Amino acid sequence: MAEYVLSIDQGTTSSRAIIFDHAGTVVASGQKEHEQILPRAGWVEHDPVEIWQNVQEVIGLALTRAHLTRHDIAGVGITNQRETAVVWDRGTGEPVYNAIVWQDTRTQEIVDRLAADGGIDRFADVVGLPLATYFSGTKIAWILENVDGARERADAGELMFGTTDSWVLWNLTGGISGGVHATDVTNASRTMFMDLETLQWREDILEAFGVPASMMPEIRSSSEVYGTAENSSLLRETPIAGILGDQQAATFGQAAFQAGESKNTYGTGCFLIFNTGEEIVRSKNGLLTTVGYKLGDAPTHYALEGSIAVAGSLIQWLRDQLGLISSAPEVEELARRVEDNGGVYIVPAFSGLFTPYWRPDARGAIVGLTRFANRNHIARAALEAVAFQTRDVLEAVNADAEVELKELKVDGGMVANDALMQFQADVLGVCVVRPKVAETTALGAAYAAGLAVGFWKDLDALSANWQEDRRWEPTMEPAERDRQLRLWRKAVTRSMDWVDDDVR
Predict the structure, then answer these.
(1) What is the largest CA-CA distance in the chain?
(2) Cα 120 from Cα 409, distance rounded (Å)
(3) Residue 504 pLDDT more than 60?
(4) Hey, which of 61, 174, 229, 437 would disulfide with 235, CB 3.0 to 4.6 Å?
């Protein structure tokens, strides 16, 4: 009997394969980064072929390190960077252009054009999302409008679209030889094309974007058998049985299954999801309404989400663009050398401001600089920027949900940073809790797959796996918290209104 589940985590900076046992414990993993292609300011791309090659390689690494074969794997789950768009040829399997990443802002003109009739909330009542460069819909439109021959090929039914879950699933299940072209409800809810109530593509919205319906993958639940692995001899005939967009997967991995439960993931970006149960809650405070999960034929669970574009990528920027640090962990070491930020605040609006502001005209700013400020203060300000942005999101959640969050479950790579987690508790004024298994994104996809193939019995079995690792209590005085929040919000205003017609 197979005793493990394998999860493919196709993320923004790397692809990973992680093997979990029945207790939800990591057995082995493989990881490989892919190139971040930055053709010009505001453009962020990935090579889909490189991603698929890396996925195959990390599957092999994980199995080898665990001394396992496909016969030991009960099922495979997929989780992914949600809004990154891939368009490829149905007959050859070749991408027509690089994947356009969720952080990319090149489609602002398309957003403006669509918003000219009805504003940025033109489709929000149906899809739960404002018009923004963030979502994959405008990225598909850009490819069709700017890649030679793409419009004609799409109209002829020759092209397929998918977020990276669909790209991996299609290739893994056979590609041009019968690959399954599907996505799950969580990823579909991030395109701007899916009706939240019917869970189907809206033909009228596709038409408004100029996207043929023939390009779109079939929308399926988050937990069911979509097909079996064929284009991987290492996993041949193993069922692919779970798909969840990365943030929904992390929520699932945190066992936040019920209304009122939530989590915050600190990765490339930062994403807070608040489960609203079977109710669709329309935000009045800049949050996104999205699908949380759907298990087979069971009712759909919805969520409110606060999306922050830049979190861990700010630390990467300090390392790669500024050379301020040589490795990501060094930022905590520098931050601990000073008692406070020295009056320095960083607003990392590299792709504009997401929740709750939705200001594409914003750009990154470092404010409050004096001769006193040094690189230690800048490192501390970078960490604090992540926590301040989360505070802004949490206030919106509290306002929309009409119930205040009592504690915040956290996950993602940055939760290993104790200085950040303590400041997060301080600036929120609530406890921050880290689970023992920090790989909650991959774990959530594994859970979805395991439920579909009977590896785990039910949600109660998954909840029993969750264990607390560490808790941070707030220690900051309320008056100091208020002062810092006032200065942060002043800094945020300084980042706005930067982009003019001739500035991108």
Answers:
(1) 66
(2) 31
(3) no
(4) 229
